[in-house]
Write a structure and sequence with these properties.
about 230 residues, mainly alpha, about 75% helix
Length: about 230
Amino acid sequence: MSFHLSRRAEPGNPWFSWQYVRDNSDTILAALREHASLTGRAVLIAALVALPLAVAAYWYRGLAGPILALTGVLYTVPSLALFAFLAPYLGIGAVTVLTVVVLYALLVIVRNAVAGLNQVPPEVRDAAEGMGYGRWARLFRVDLPLALPGILTGVRLATVSTVALVTVGVVVGRGGLGQLIFAGFQNNFYKAQIMTGTLLCVLLALVLDLVLAGTGRLLTPWLRGRPR
């Protein structure tokens, strides 16, 4: 996909141009779809990896420190360095981008999931055990439902940060809206192109966050009447 888009003559170099958006709507929408797809897949994979890690840290307290430390170390590695390290092994493309953003999302989801699980009242766990719930039954019927607000907070934070991080995928040719922004710098610092990509990133993050917030309200009806 080429991101060196058509640029008709315009007075000056405005920060936003409807003409630019109209002339390049197909390519802009393609970049937006790619960005949303990469974000959604990355957060889903991160959640599927992070939740078992959080449960392990919750059940076995001795693992909590190493799990949080490992995900924390991964989070501190500069994204460009991580892309450079993984690209020779995973190739140039979506797999490399997904791997990098998943590794960064793990810390946020794991930390919030562990915090949510640890906030389950001890008396509730004792009551569940008294009713004959085993470890797995208590996990799915008591612990995870009560920890859901914390888990969703982690997923929301990971989603917003992933939207931003996906743009760095431009270094391996799959940056979604990041390629739009980068091409704007290459295109004689074309402000309208840069601003369009930036605004769509912000809008995508806001929309996804609102969707997740709404989903959280639907899944936790017992919290709606709670005073803030």
